[in-house]
Design brief:
Elements (H helix, E strand, L loop, with lengths): L1 H11 L11 E6 L8 E7 L15 E7 L5 H8 L5 E7 L25 E7 L3 H7 L5 E2 L11 H11 L3 H29 L24 H18 L6 H31 L7
Parallel strand pairs: 1-6
Antiparallel strand pairs: 1-2, 2-3, 3-5, 4-5
GO molecular function: RNA binding
Organism: Vulpes vulpes
GO cellular component, one term: centrosome
Length: 280
């Protein structure tokens, strides 16, 4: 009896889990068989007054120390007892409050570095955040009804997900290009309206619209550039490096001069013979 009371007293007097200031610790386990617990540190997501945030205030839970095996689906399931979860997003580092939120691409976004991450859990109601902060654990990530892949099964799944579907990829590229063309057209229209118009202080913004547009390089122009590069490389080669090469080059040059001299003499004789007016 005394031993049981001592164990019970030691259990009751067990100190709280240390956590960063302002955060609450929630223990989680990968499976029921695991003895040690991992801790998530959570708090309500807040930003400074006057700063815009891409996350809804009073409904967003900020989570630190998320392990690599814990996916967005796992976090949504773990925090679902606290209230209806609207969305979950994992990030490599905390999001800046004033940074614009851009949609993530499944194909073109870089693969996140494997390691511990942060998460933003958005609830449908503000009460979900309050309930999550006081949530007790340990919470189990991988259960029989919701198993989490690990080891070679996870590698196979990641490889299958890395192979893109051609039709889905084409749709995303077309959507991106349509948005890009629309943005460029709006910027050009705005620049055209502001061209030559002075601002409040009388300054006129100089744009690049007045410059001559660059002609697209055709196949003929590309061939000329390649031929020019070939000639440039040929000039850099070692010519007349040896003495016998130098002598042969001189002899060939003299032979060409003699041949041209004889050809010029024949032309002059032919021109004299064809003259009709002969004063002597």
């Amino acid at each position: 009896m005394a031993a049981r009371r001592r164990k019970r007293g030691a259990r009751d007097s067990e100190p709280e889990i240390p956590s960063p200031p302002g955060y609450s610790a929630i223990p989680i386990k990968f499976s029921e068989k695991q003895q040690a617990s991992h801790y998530l540190y959570v708090r309500e997501h807040k930003v400074r007054e006057g700063t815009k945030s891409s996350w809804p205030q009073k409904r967003t839970l900020f989570v630190l120390n998320v392990p690599p095996y814990c996916t967005e689906e796992c976090l949504s399931r773990l925090f679902s007892p606290c209230g209806a979860v609207q969305s979950v997003e994992l990030q490599e580092k905390p999001d800046l409050g004033d940074s614009p939120k851009e949609p993530k691409s499944k194909f073109f976004d870089p693969t996140p570095v494997p390691g511990f991450q942060v998460a933003y859990v958005v609830f449908q109601k503000p009460g979900g955040v309050s309930a999550a902060i006081v949530l007790k654990g340990p919470l189990v990530v991988s259960t029989e009804s919701h198993p989490v892949k690990s080891g070679i099964h996870k590698w196979i799944s990641n490889y299958v997900d890395s192979v893109p579907d051609p039709e889905t990829l084409r749709i995303e590229v077309d959507t991106f290009m349509e948005a890009y063309d629309k943005r460029i057209a709006e910027e050009e229209a705005k620049a055209k309206e502001e061209e030559g118009v002075p601002d409040e202080e009388g300054w006129v913004k100089v744009t690049r619209r007045g410059r001559r547009p660059v002609l697209p390089r055709t196949e003929a122009a590309s061939l000329r550039v390649l031929e020019k590069e070939r000639r440039k490389r040929a000039r850099k080669e070692l010519l007349n490096f040896y003495a016998w090469q130098h002598r042969e080059t001189k002899m060939e040059h003299l032979a060409q001069l003699r041949k041209k001299f004889e050809e010029d003499k024949q032309k002059i004789e032919l021109m004299r013979a064809q003259r009709k007016f002969r004063p002597y």
